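chain below, 90 aa
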Amino acid sequence: MATKHIQYATKGTCSQVIDVTADENDVIQQVFFMGGCNGNLQGLSQLVRGMKIDDVIRKVDGVRCGMKGTSCPDQLCRALEQLKSAPLED
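prediction:
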């Protein structure tokens, strides 16, 4: 099965990079966060695995962390938006 993969440099969060892979049907296969709140981000990664990209974006887009204008879930949405247009790899 073909997949697409990106590493997204986050902005405004404790995590610095989100590494995400989806299959050719836009189903998320894996998500890794570098930095940030390890337990919470492992949980988020497990929750979104197997979900369609657009479903995740619909659920967590715009989530904020405290007074910040963004959050790790919100930055995941930015990464997923980029992933949607990434080329498929065999």
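The first strand starts at residue 3 and ends at 9. The radius of gyration is 12 Å.
thats it, cya
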